[in-house]
Design brief:
There is one protein chain. With 702 residues, this protein is of the alpha+beta class. It folds into two domains: 217 residues, Penicillin binding protein transpeptidase fold (Orthogonal Bundle), CATH 1.10.3810; 389 residues, Beta-lactamase (3-Layer(aba) Sandwich), CATH 3.40.710.10. It is built from 22 helices and 17 strands. A five-stranded antiparallel β-sheet has the order 7-6-17-16-15, with helices on both faces. Strands 2-1-5-13 form a four-stranded mixed β-sheet. A hairpin with a 6-residue loop joins strand 1 and strand 2. Helix 1 runs antiparallel to helix 4. The longest helix is centred in the C-terminal third of the chain and has 18 residues. It is elongated and about 85 Å long.
Length: 702
C-alpha cells in the first residue's frame, strides 16, 4: 500500500490535478487540539488507562542551542532549508526503494511531519499522504523556515510523556533546553524516529547506535568536527520514565505492550497520545483483577527482593486476558518478557516431541539417579531428592518431576527436534538477537541445542511459555498472542486490525495425550477448585545446594492458559519470609491455582482437550537399551527386597503401549555452563535487553 501512496504523491508533484486538488484542501488557521486516547478492557466500556499530553512547555527557537537544532535536522531532514516543504527527490528515492524491495521507506520532511502531527491523522492512505503534501506546501508559504522548525520542535513527541523539546530536555536530562549539549541534543534527535525503542532506558545498544549515526551525519554535513564524533561519550540519562500516576503501576506494562502492537499497525506513539483514539484491548477485567489481587497477596510480607510475573492467554484466540510483569509501570523492566530458565515447566515440550515420534507417555525408561549422559561431559545427573525409579514410565516421571528419564528421552528424539517444536508452538526464534534455546558463547556447544533442554536450562520468557501451554490447551492450534482488539479514531472510523495468525502446529492426539499426563500432575499437586486443569511446575536450583532460585507453574483449563514465575533480580537463594526455599510446586503453584479460581469464578466450566478417534491415535514403537537397563536394575532391586518373590508394588507399564527407541550413545562433550544474568531491573529498561538468569550446570532442576 505504501508504494501506491507515494505514486499518488508523485503524480501530484508532477502537476496532475494539483490546482484543483490543492484548492479543495484548506489550511486550518490553528493546529488540531491534542486529545487523550483511552484504552478499554475487552468489554469496550470499562476504562483501563488514559494516555494524553502529560508534559509540554513551548520554547522559542532562540532558546534551543544551534548544535541541538542541527542534530534534529541531521536526523530528520538534512535539506530542510532548501526544499519548498516537500522533497521530491526523497519521494522518488522512497518509491524506487519500495518497488525494489517492498520496504516501507519514508520520505517525510520536517514540514510534512509537522503537518501530519498538527493537522492530520497517522493513517497510511493515499488520501492522507496527498493532503499532507498540499498542506506542507501551504505551510511553507504561510511561515518562515525558522517558524516551522520552532513549531515542529514544540509539538513533536520525544517519548516519556514529553511533547516538545523543552519537556524532553527535562524528561531525559533534568535540565532546561538552553543547557543541552551537542551530545544530549543528538540523543533527543535520535529518539524522534521511534520514541519507545530508541529510548536509551529501553534499548541501550540500539539507542547508542542511532545516537552515533546522528553525530556522524552532523560531521558529514560539516556541523561538527570528525574528531568530535570519535571522542563523544553517550551522556548520562535520567533513570526515571515519567508518566501519569495511573500508569506507574502494573497496568503501565500493559500499555507498553499495546503501544508496541499499535506501532506495528502504523499508530505512532505521538498519535496514541494526541489523536483521541479509542483502543479496546483483549484484557478481561475479572481476569486482570484476579492477577493483580493474587500477586499482591502472594508477595505481601515476603522478602523485598521477591518478584513475580503472571500471563494469562485465551487458548482459542491468543488473546491476552490478564498480565502482570511488575509493579513499576510504563517503561520499566517487564518480568513477563524476561527470558529465564523454566526448569521442569518446559518438560512437556520434550514429552510432546516424543509423542510425535511415536514414544508413548506410558513407555518405560531408566529413571535411576544419578546417571551419566553424553551431553553432560561427565557431570552426573540427579533426580530431585535423588529419587530412584529404575522402571519408570514417562507419565510417572512427569508426576514426580524426575530428570533422568526425560534427559534420556531428549537424547533419543534429538534435542534440536525439541527446539524446533518449541519454536512452532510459541517460543520465539531469537531472544535479544540471539538464537533461542541453544548454548551461548562459552558453553559446550555454542549455537547448538543439547539434551539439557529437557532440564529447562535454556531461558524462556513467561509470556512465551504461556503461548506454549495455550497451544496445548487449544488441541495443538497455536494462536498469535495479542493485546489489541480494535482501534477507533476520534471521528468514529475503525483502523484495520488484522486477525491473529492461527495454525495447527501439534497433532490433536498429541495434545490430548499430553493433557492427560499434565492433568494428573495438577490433580495430585495443586487441583483447581471445581475445574479440570492440567499443568506442570518447575524449580531451578541454586548451585549445588538444596536452595532454589526460580519457581514456575504453567498450565491451563479448557479456556485459559496461565504461567506464573517467581524469582529475584539477581541469582541467589529464593526463600520466603520463613526462610524456606520457594519451589514451583509450592508458592508458584498456589498462586497459579488461586488465580485461576478467581479469574474463572462464575463462568462455565470448559473441558480439557479430550480423547481422539481411532483414526487420530498415535502409533507407538518399540523400545531398546534404556528400557532393558531399567528392567535389569528393577529386577535386581526387586530380588534384593523380596528374596526373589514377586513384588506387588512394582510399577507396571500400561498394557496398551509399547516401549521407546534406545537413547543414542556417543563421546561425552564439555560440561555446560550458565547464562548471563539479567540487568538490574531497578532501572527502567526493556525486557528485550534483559538477559536470562544464570544457571549452574550442576544445579538440581526440579
Amino acid at each position: 500500500m505504501i508504494g501506491v501512496v507515494e505514486l499518488v504523491v508523485l503524480a501530484l508533484g508532477a502537476g496532475v490535478a494539483v490546482a484543483g486538488y490543492a484548492g479543495s484542501v484548506p489550511l486550518p488557521s490553528e493546529p488540531v487540539v491534542p486529545q487523550a486516547s483511552v484504552l478499554y478492557y475487552r468489554d469496550g466500556q470499562t476504562e483501563l488507562a488514559r494516555l494524553g499530553v502529560t508534559s509540554r512547555q513551548d520554547v522559542s527557537l532562540d532558546q534551543v542551542p544551534v548544535p541541538v537544532r542541527q542534530a534534529v535536522l541531521a536526523a530528520e531532514d538534512r535539506s530542510f532549508h532548501d526544499h519548498p516543504g516537500v522533497s521530491w527527490r526523497g519521494l522518488t528515492r522512497a518509491v524506487v526503494r519500495n518497488v525494489a524491495d517492498g520496504a516501507a521507506q519514508g520520505a517525510s520532511t520536517i514540514t510534512q511531519q509537522y503537518v501530519r502531527n498538527a493537522y492530520l491523522t497517522q493513517e497510511r492512505t493515499a488520501e492522507r499522504k496527498a493532503k499532507e503534501i498540499v498542506l506542507a506546501l501551504k505551510i511553507e508559504r504561510r511561515y518562515r523556515k525558522d517558524e516551522i522548525l520552532e513549531r515542529y520542535l514544540n509539538t513533536i513527541y520525544f517519548g516519556r510523556g514529553a511533547y516538545g523539546i523543552g519537556a524532553a530536555a527535562h524528561a531525559y536530562f533534568g535540565v532546561g533546553v538552553d543547557r543541552l549539549s551537542v551530545e544530549q541534543g543528538a540523543v533527543l534527535a535520535s529518539v524522534i524516529k521511534d520514541p519507545y525503542h530508541f529510548d536509551p532506558a529501553v534499548d541501550p545498544a540500539g539507542a547508542a547506535d542511532r545516537w552515533r549515526w546522528v553525530l556522524t551525519a552532523m560531521s558529514e554535513l560539516g556541523w561538527i568536527e570528525a574528531g568530535a564524533v570519535a571522542a563523544a561519550r553517550y551522556p548520562e540519562i535520567t533513570p526515571e520514565a515519567p508518566g501519569p500516576a495511573a500508569l506507574a503501576g502494573p497496568l503501565g506494562q500493559i500499555v507498553d505492550q499495546v503501544e508496541r502492537e499499535l506501532a506495528a499497525l502504523g499508530v505512532s506513539a505521538q498519535s496514541l497520545r494526541t489523536a483521541g483514539l479509542t483502543v479496546v484491548t483483549h484484557i478481561d477485567e475479572q481476569v486482570q483483577t484476579a492477577a493483580l489481587d493474587r500477586v499482591a497477596a502472594t508477595l505481601k510480607d515476603q522478602p523485598k527482593g521477591l518478584r513475580a510475573a503472571l500471563v494469562a492467554v485465551e487458548p482459542a484466540t491468543g488473546a491476552v486476558r490478564g498480565y502482570y510483569g511488575g509493579s513499576r509501570g510504563v517503561g520499566y523492566f517487564d518480568d513477563a518478557l524476561a527470558p529465564r530458565a523454566p526448569g521442569a515447566a518446559f518438560r512437556p515440550v520434550v514429552l510432546a516431541t516424543g509423542l510425535i515420534k511415536g514414544i508413548s507417555a506410558g513407555s518405560i525408561w531408566d529413571g535411576r539417579s544419578p546417571r551419566s549422559f553424553r551431553d553432560r561431559g561427565g557431570v552426573p545427573l540427579y533426580n530431585r531428592d535423588n529419587e530412584q525409579c529404575p522402571v519408570c514410565s514417562l507419565d510417572f516421571a512427569m508426576l514426580r518431576s524426575l530428570n533422568t528419564p526425560y534427559y534420556a528421552l531428549a537424547e533419543a528424539v534429538g534435542p534440536e527436534s525439541v527446539r524446533e517444536l518449541a519454536v512452532r508452538i510459541g517460543v520465539p526464534q531469537k531472544y535479544q538477537g540471539r538464537r533461542s534455546l541453544v548454548d551461548e558463547p562459552g558453553a559446550p556447544a555454542p549455537g547448538s541445542t543439547r539434551a539439557d533442554i529437557a532440564l529447562g536450562r535454556y531461558p524462556v520468557a513467561p509470556a512465551d511459555l504461556a503461548s506454549v501451554y495455550a497451544t496445548f490447551a487449544a488441541e495443538g492450534v497455536h494462536a498469535q498472542r495479542r493485546f489489541v482488539d480494535r482501534v477507533i479514531s476520534a471521528d468514529g472510523r475503525h483502523w484495520a486490525v488484522p486477525p491473529a495468525r492461527r495454525a495447527q502446529v501439534l497433532p490433536p492426539a498429541v495434545a490430548a495425550e499430553l493433557t492427560a499426563v499434565l492433568a494428573k500432575v495438577v490433580a495430585v499437586h495443586t487441583p483447581v477448585r471445581e475445574r479440570p486443569a492440567a499443568g506442570m511446575f518447575g524449580t531451578v536450583g541454586f548451585g549445588d545446594t538444596v536452595e532454589s532460585q526460580e519457581a514456575w507453574m504453567a498450565g491451563y483449563t479448557g479456556d485459559l492458559a496461565a504461567v506464573v514465575w517467581l524469582g529475584q533480580a539477581e541469582p541467589g537463594p529464593l526463600r520466603d519470609r520463613a526462610k524456606r526455599p520457594i519451589r514451583g510446586e509450592g508458592m508458584a503453584a498456589e498462586l497459579w491455582r488461586d488465580f485461576l479460581a478467581a479469574a474463572l469464578q462464575g463462568r462455565p466450566v470448559a473441558a480439557l482437550p479430550g480423547a481422539v478417534g481411532d483414526d487420530q491415535r498415535i502409533s507407538y514403537r518399540a523400545g531398546g537399551p534404556d528400557q532393558a537397563a531399567g528392567d535389569r536394575a528393577d529386577r535386581q532391586a526387586r530380588e534384593r527386597r523380596t528374596g526373589g518373590q514377586q513384588d506387588p508394588g512394582r510399577l507396571v507399564e500400561r498394557q496398551d503401549e509399547q516401549k521407546p527407541n534406545p537413547e543414542p550413545t556417543g563421546p561425552p562433550s564439555d560440561a555446560p555452563s550458565g547464562a548471563t544474568p539479567p540487568k538490574d531491573p531497578s532501572r527502567p529498561t526493556s525486557p528485550a535487553t534483559a538477559g536470562p538468569a544464570a544457571v549452574d550446570p550442576a544445579a538440581p532442576v526440579r
